[in-house]
Amino acid sequence: MAMAEPLNPSSRSGTEADPERPQPQRADQLRPTGFSRLGPERPRAPGPLSEAEWPSPDPAASSTAVRHARAAAPAVDLSRYLDASATSPPAPEVLAAMADQAAAAWANPSSLHGPGLVAAELLERSRIRLAGALGTEPGQIVFCSGGSEAIHLALLGSAALMQPGRLLVSAVEHPATLAAAAQLQRQGWQLEILPVDRLGLVDPQLLAERLAPPTRLVSLIWGQSEVGSLQPIARLGALCRQAGVRLHVDAVQVLGHLPLNLAQLPVDLLSGTAHKLQGPRGVGALALAPGVELAPLIGGGSQEGGRRGGTEPVLLAHGFAAALDLATERLAAAAGQDPLAQLRNELWQRLSPLEGLRLSGPVPDGSGQRLPHHLSLLVSSHDGRPLSGRAMVQALARRGWAVSSGSACSSASGAGAAAGASPILLAMGYSPLEARSGLRLSLGPWLQPQDLEPFAADLDTARRELQAALT
Ligand SMILES: Cc1ncc(COP(=O)(O)O)c(C=O)c1O
Predict the structure, then answer these.
(1) How far is Cα 303 from Cα 124, in angstroms, rounded to an integer?
(2) 409 is annotated as an active-site residue
């Protein structure tokens, strides 16, 4: 696999190497761990960092920076924000980490001067941190603008180096995957949509059967954003490996909520985005397994190892790394279990006895089939007539709650979506009317157990309100 030369600005910008120029360290030579998430990463003179220059963990500085970030942040009440799967508020730690670097790491990381080197260094540190958290090598991380771009790069960038064949995707993919798949269809690829069961899960046996030629590419959503289903990726990936078929996994909803080690997963490409895990909006990453080659979708520069042209968003990458570190630490402190599962389970216990509510997707019971921070419901009248999920969202919004009727992408689609049914619920076998009655609650670390206490009563009142309007 052609490894990125991330810290050589000459190769990154496609210009001749300057022998006079102080050479920064390559990403794989930088010390991968041992500096604080919030450590004082100060502007520095060009040249490799000496050991003494590496910021050491400084909890006092960290907590001061976080306090400042909290103080500077507008007083937004997050105690009723249950829409983490749409996006999540940036963590104070992330804001503090970004603020720490904003004045220093502004330059173009491909530039052949000191400020450029400072930016390049921060970018490569972020890459190292991301790679460490994902269980891969820094040269296998491609920063990009978010999940949608990562997915397009994975599919279109892979396909560009292949003969057209068959692409398999599940029936519950994110619209970004479907859009990339439609582009491939226009390029002569066959698209086959694998059905899912009532829980939104793909049948491994069916996948195994469909992996025969001309299948060359598979793309699967790991954690389904609307109904929370977790595909058994290790099992499905093993089948793809056996068949020699490349697998891309959309891990946008999983990142930060499940421990993830790409080195131990039979997955070739994995997409993630920062804003779902309290990082900044506008930055994502595609992680590549060793040996996986791609054609860039955006040319013009040799940034990101030639896989994605364009000046890198250094500060956003830094925020992404800070957010992922935070989430990884939270998981590690709880033996790999997202502490939000407990909060989510308690919420379900309160909601499940209520009239007119049913679960969609897998049961939140710790069996590992559902995203740990996620709950999805179907709402109906007392006599079983489906109620509008969108109307429920609005009724709850009037009570200050932020929830969603499905994925944010379909919620934003305007009148068509208001009239339409969720393609995800339809694919799971629900009727068109039921498929309009979805409600999604997705939790984040900003929530305290007591925040959720009033929710059940408000949901019940909102549902009764809509029920009354039916008759
Ligand atoms: C499962 C999934 N994949 C991809 C995306 C797209 O990510 P982004 O918004 O960063 O482009 C989303 C966002 O909602 C998602 O939930």
Answers:
(1) 12
(2) yes
Q: Are residues 244 and 329 in the same domain?
A: yes
Between the CA of 148 and the centroid of ligand 1 the distance, in Å, is 6
CATH of the domain at 430: 3.90.1150.10
The string of DSSP letters for 37-98 reads TT-------SSPPPGGGSPPP-HHHHHHHHHHHHHHS-----TTB-BTTT--PPPHHHHHHH
Would you call 196 helix, strand, or coil by DSSP?
strand
Amino acid identity at 167 = L
pLDDT digits 0-9 by tens, 55-97: 333 333 456 666 666 666 656 789 999 999 999 999 999 999 9
Between 8-17, 362-371, 437-446, the lowest mean confidence (pLDDT) is in 8-17
Compute CA distances 60 → 69, 113, 324, whole Å: 14, 33, 21
Ligand 1 site, residue 146, Cβ cutoff 6 A = yes
Predicted confidence (pLDDT) per residue in 205-220, tens digit:
999 999 999 999 999 9
Judgement on whether residues 180 and 298 belong to the same structural domain of the protein: yes
| Pocket flag, ligand 1, residue 408 (CB < 6 Å) | yes
Residue range(s) defining the domain that contains residue 277? 134-333
Residue whose Cα lies nearest atom 7 of ligand 1: it is: 147
Catalytic residue among 61, 179, 238, 409: 409
Hey, what's the torsion of the CAs at 414, 416, 421, 422, to 10 degrees? -50
